Amino acid sequence: MRSSTIRRMVAALALCLAVGAPATAAVIARPVLRLYVLDCGTIRTAQVESYGLAPAEVRLTDMSVPCYLIRHGRSWLLFDTGLGDDHAGRADRVVDMTLEVRQRLAAQLAAIRVRPEQISYVAISHFHFDHVGNLAAFPHATLLLQRAEAEKMRTAPYPFSPPAAVARLQQERIELLDGDRDLFGDGSIVLLSTPGHSPGHQSMMVRLRRTGPVILTGDLYHHPEELSLNRVPPREANGATPASRERVRALAQREGAQIWIGHDLARFRAQRHAPAYYD
Fold first, then answer.
1. Residue 151 forms part of a structural domain
2. 230 domain-assigned
3. Is residue 202 in some structural domain?
């Protein structure tokens, strides 16, 4: 057996052990894996105090709103659906935030020749409005959601939740998760239960061959300064967020993974955007 093959098997086994996936996943050959970064909006705001930060400590107070499209062999997965395309061409206000959508998600998918009905899975980090804006556009996909998040939405929906996204919870093709999920059984895409920001918040690890492991953190963080300065939003300090952050930090350290904070506008601007991709 070639040494490169052995190294890949050992790396996959290490990931399985780290996230609790079956050890047999280590010997399953992984198909083509690509990660596309999509522009699903921008939130203009100067308010950072609710994240435990002072304005002078934050380089950029505005926040990017990405969606992530992942190709796994012949399957397509979308992680979060951003602000709704219906915000395009407008400057809508929500409390102290201005919402902007410059590129429609539908057009970005079309540019890489992916039709909405081709997407097999839509995984939602949590159900806040800037993460589910286009959820209703994918009725044929299986919705992957933590059970605690679905229960929260069914009993007390978050403010400003798009009605069409809420209605999606009453439709078919929903898989409720109770913790981590190795989606394809090969360790390449693992949903991670990271509650705190919301009851059923989840993140995702994508183990790319060339780029290396990447952890998409949803709203586990909003600004990179929360990570560098070790700041926790006051409303989350006594909840599950600190433990979830420690879990992700330890996993990233063990795996040599990058932590991608979706709302980090500086990182987002520096990234490759679709139709370019990470692999």
1. yes
2. yes
3. yes
Q: Which residues of 165-192 are buried (b: 16+ CB within 10 A; e: fewer)?
A: bbebbeeeeeeebeebbbbbebbbbbbb
What is the domain range of residue 236? 3-270
The CB-side HSE value for 33 (13 A sphere, CA atoms) comes to 19
- Nearest of 278, 263, 273, 279 to residue 111 by alpha carbon: 273
The structure tokens listed for 241 are 């967020």
Sign of CA dihedral 14, 16, 22, 27: negative
Number of domains in the chain: 1
Q: Say which CATH number the domain at 23 has.
A: 3.60.15.10
Using alpha carbons, list the distances in angstroms from residue 198 to 53, 147, 163, 275. Answer: 20, 12, 19, 32
Q: What is the pLDDT of residues 156-186, one digit of tens each?
A: 999 999 999 999 999 989 999 999 999 999 9
Dist. CA 256–CA 16, nearest whole Å: 15
Q: Is residue 261 part of a domain?
A: yes
DSSP state letter for 202: E
Least Cα distance to 202 among 190, 213, 191 occurs for: 191
Residues 70/79, Cβ–Cβ less than 8 Å: yes
pLDDT one-digit tens code per residue, 200-221:
999 999 999 999 999 999 999 9
Helix (H, G, I), strand (E, B) or coil at 39: strand
| C-alpha span between 253 and 155 (Å, rounded) | 37
